[in-house]
Amino acid sequence: MEITRLQVAEPPVAKGIHKLQLESYQREASLIEYPHLPPLRESFEEVANFHGVVYGVQRKDALLGVIFVEPAKESTAATIAKLFVAENEGRKGIGRSLVTFVKTRYNTLYVSTAERNEPAIRLYQKLGFCEKFRIVIDPWLTLCTFEWKKRSDTDVFTV
């Protein structure tokens, strides 16, 4: 599985990412019973203007999975801002591969997800992330924030 940096400023790339993002976050909104997820309100232009790094997995012209990473300034830490996989590609290791790939580039990673998004929570925990805190956004949404810290040079290959 090849992971490449995506050039989100290029309109065709941003449009493909935006389409997959909407499809993926609609599924998540249904799963967690919360229709107001911020990525569902993002425009194509907001995706194209993302200031971090975006990696993806593609097969021919099809985008299979995407991870948005916001590096911290002057640090070896970053936040996974978004991670999503095409519906028909779920449970094939694409999300795991994207997160593992990003783990090779930073010493500390943070990620937040809804407490009712059990598949995402299981993925992050299997990849060595530990829950740090929870934030109640409103009565229907609580976010769990996880942290991963590199322990040694070989830790990034641990699954």
UniProtKB/TrEMBL annotation:
PROSITE patterns: GNAT. Gene3D superfamilies: 3.40.630.30. One of its GO terms (molecular function) is acyltransferase activity, transferring groups other than amino-acyl groups. Transmembrane segments: none annotated. Residues 1-153 form the N-acetyltransferase domain. It comes from the Bacteria. It holds the Pfam family Acetyltransf_1. SUPFAM superfamilies: Acyl-CoA N-acyltransferases (Nat) (SSF55729). InterPro entries: Acyl_CoA_acyltransferase (IPR016181), GNAT_dom (IPR000182). This is BH1041 protein. It comes from Halalkalibacterium halodurans (strain ATCC BAA-125 / DSM 18197 / FERM 7344 / JCM 9153 / C-125).
